[in-house]
Amino acid sequence: MENISLSPFLTPSTPGPEKITPSAPDPSQGIERILYLLSIAVYGVACLLGVTGNGLVIWIAGFKMEKTVNVVWFLNLALADFVFTFFLPLSITYTALGFHWPFGRFLCKLNSSLAFLNMFASVFLLTVISLDRCLLVVLPVWSRNHRTPRLAWAIALVTWGAALLISSPYFLFRDTALSARNVTSCYNNFALSSNYTSEESRSLWKKRHRAMILARFVFGFLLPFTVIAVCHGVVAFQVQRRRLAKSPKPLRIIAAVTASFFLCYSPYHVLSLLEMSKTSGSPMVKRVLHLGVPLASSLAFFNSCLNPLLYVFVGQKSFRRSMRGAFEGAFGEDALLSLSSKRKSRAASQTEIRMA
């Protein structure tokens, strides 16, 4: 895939910086020009909203609220998105300069690694949150006795460690190279070699590229989506069965955050799989990738600024509530704790009946 890499998320399969270095589109090419400008605009909006919004969440959840289990989860989500959007100006500059990377090799590696660290940390945390919701409903007694902020912090650290481990290859493979046009490209050197012509290097490049795409799809999308879908199904069934409020706000927040993540990232994963398919060499597929990759990249970037907006606006009956009040409502545990209490009371009643 040539000349379409617009962000750290995208991993062209053609070896060699000369072939994979993207170029700013010709102004005469209307659609490409629009997508090029749209990418810069979306990156800018995501950076502005992401840094301010997630920074606000970190300030309120980290310093103004009691550290409940929910606050720990969403605080870590905000940290992942904040770090990523804080470094977005590097990608904005890279795109605006016609894909010339002036920041050096280390920041090339770091920028790409942070993008994938954010992706994996976010989806792993969403999976943990969904499992937490499910356990709270299915095992209320155990949750009451063991579900503590201290345990939540320990699990969050393990989650960050797993995300760091699985995103570390991107730091290893990311590299810079100066082309004959005096343009420095920031690209994925899967062969870890400057020899792009040998059959051995090209074969190794393709194998590692496929392995990275498959691992990213399985661990960053397929498995988490399956776990989250099952957990949400169990919680929804129990909520309906116990006739709890039809749509308690914390459940709406979790559903909205999860849905936004998968809607924003699914086009990226689809295009990644399409890139490694046998049809990727056809002119039609190349055209789809050329036009679709910038949009998929922009959408994935934009996800990092959505969560603070969802915390404030999803389920709000009044826009006059304070920010702290909005976040306390979003991170509240009353609804599911109520359901948990009902299940616990019912279990206790059944035990008493059996013992009578």
What structural class do you assign from the helix and strand content? mainly alpha
Spatial strand sequence of the major β-sheet: 1-2
CATH superfamily: Rhodopsin 7-helix transmembrane proteins
Largest sheet: 2 strands, antiparallel
Under CATH, the topology can be stated as: Rhopdopsin 7-helix transmembrane proteins
Provide the residue-averaged pLDDT: 78
Instruction: Return residue spans where pLDDT drops below 50 for at least 5 consecutive residues.
Output: 1-6, 344-356
Quick overview of this protein structure:
The protein has 356 residues and is an all-alpha fold.
List strands and helices in order, with pairings.
Elements: H1 17-20, H2 30-63, H3 69-86, H4 88-96, H5 105-138, H6 140-146, H7 149-173, E1 174-178, E2 184-188, H8 199-241, H9 249-275, H10 283-302, H11 306-313, H12 323-330, H13 334-355
Antiparallel strand pairs: 1-2
Characterization of this structure:
There is one protein chain. The chain is mainly alpha-helical. It has a single domain (30-345), classed as Rhodopsin 7-helix transmembrane proteins (Rhopdopsin 7-helix transmembrane proteins, Up-down Bundle), CATH 1.20.1070.10. Helices cover 73% and strands 3% of the residues. The protein has helices at 17-20, 30-63, 69-86, 88-96, 105-138, 140-146, 149-173, 199-241, 249-275, 283-302, 306-313, 323-330, 334-355, and strands spanning 174-178, 184-188. The protein has a two-stranded antiparallel sheet with strand order 1-2. Helix 2 packs antiparallel against helix 4.
Features:
disordered C terminus; 356 residues; receptor; mainly alpha; membrane; single chain; transducer
